[in-house]
Structures are given as C-alpha cells and as structure tokens.
C-alpha cells in the first residue's frame, strides 16, 4: 500500500512549548510573596516617604524634614547610632570568635550543628519575649542578679549596671546580634582554602602573619559588610527597646512611636519624617553590606 503524501502548501500547526509553559506557571509560586511584599513593605514605605513631605493639609512641604534638626531628635538619632555601633561591633567580635572556633578551631564535628541551629533560632528571637527574658534574668529582681547578690555578695546595680540603660539595651541586642554574625561569617570562614595557609607556612609565615596578611584581608569585606548589616539590624529594632526601656531611653524608634501614637507629642508627619530618616540610614547600611558581600564572594571564588 502506497504512502499518502502530505499535501504541500499547508501550514503546520505550531506545537506548544512545554518549558515556556512551566516558566509561566512558576510565577504563580512567588505570587504570594509578591503580594505580601507589596502590601506590607513597598506600599507602607511609599506612604512613609510621601507623608514625610506633607503637612496635615496634604500639601508638599520640607518642614517635617527640617524638624529632624531639632537638638532632641538629633540626640535620639545619636543614641540609636551609638547603640547600633556598640552592639554591631561586639556582635561581630564575639560572633567571629565563636565561628572561628567551630570552623577552624578543631572542635568536634557534632558541636557545629547545635550551635548553628541555636543561632538560627536566636537571631530571630526579639521583641517583647526577649525583653521579658532579660528583665527576668538581669532585672533588679532577676535570677542572675539575685544569685550574684545573695550567693557571692555582688550587687551589679550598686556598681552602676542598669538593664534600662545604654549598656543594658546593648547587652540585650547582643542576644540576636551574635547568632546573626555566626550565621553570616561561617560560610566565609568555610571559604578559606587550606592551600593558602599551607603556602603561607611554606614561605615561613607563622599563625599571626597568616591571619594578618592573608586571612583577614580576604575576610575584611565580609566582616565590614556583616558589621553594616548588624548595625542596620539594631538601628531598626523597636519592639525590644520599647518593651525593655519604655520611654526611659529616647532612641529613634521610641521617639517615632511617641509621635505617631502618643497623646501629647502626636505629630504623625514628623513621625513619617523620623521613619524616613531611619529608612535612609538603613538603606545606606544594607547597600554597604551587599557591596562588601559581593567583593568577599569574588575573593573566595578566585
């Protein structure tokens, strides 16, 4: 039986592209995230930026931005910056020591897993629960305070310590700053190649020379970037500070809260301006972190 020839001049029906269809369907997977980011991040941020340049009548003005130059508001920014710098520096220092110990210190392999698990949990433990935990531990009637006073005769409050002070809030922030540092710097320490240390040893370098001339210069972008991220993390924290200190420590988030929700100091548009200033500082810190992380990744991959 002869085969029937396909008629010429008839256009073929295009077949669908499965890969293109899968790509189009894949967008549905991130749709909830996009909606969430739009409703709870992008639109509120735009509302803050617009409100910072409006007066109560809805007219454009720079008056709210000019109010940020008031001495009391500048002082609140300065206190927030000092707390953020102190907690970021101590968090980087202590977190780096812990990460170096578990990655390069020759500790047993089973130690790393619980430390990383705890760091993942503790880095997200903040707000009212964290404030309550520190009050119950280091408050005037806290567990550690009472044990030191009754068991060892040491009254930390008699020596000037106060959980509701600058150093008290800084110490509280370290609970989530140190674990965050461990999570971020551990991959960078893992990226240090054994060949670099062996080459340095062959050339006669001791441990101090290896760290000062090889390891730290390679890790320096990652360390600076993580410091910037920890700074932004502390600068934007509000729930922990408000629950712990109330209005006794005038940092920017607490002043902002008073302007938006307060009965006496209520000025929502000044609150928007305060939030806008915080956004600018946070953007600068996060941009520095992303830039430094990109440089660190290029170093490690090279």
From TrEMBL:
Protein topology in the membrane: Multi-pass membrane protein
Keywords: Cell membrane, Membrane, Transmembrane, Transmembrane helix, Transport
Domain of life of the organism encoding this protein: Bacteria
InterPro entries the record matches: MetI-like (IPR000515), MetI-like_sf (IPR035906)
Record domain ABC transmembrane type-1: where: 77-289
Transmembrane annotation, as ranges: 26-53, 74-107, 127-148, 160-188, 208-232, 239-260, 272-292
Pfam families: BPD_transp_1
Extent of the signal sequence: none
BP terms from Gene Ontology: transmembrane transport
Region annotation Disordered: where it falls in the sequence: 1-21
GO cellular component: plasma membrane
UniProt subcellular location: Cell membrane
Family: Belongs to the binding-protein-dependent transport system permease family. CysTW subfamily.
Protein name: Putative spermidine/putrescine transport system permease protein
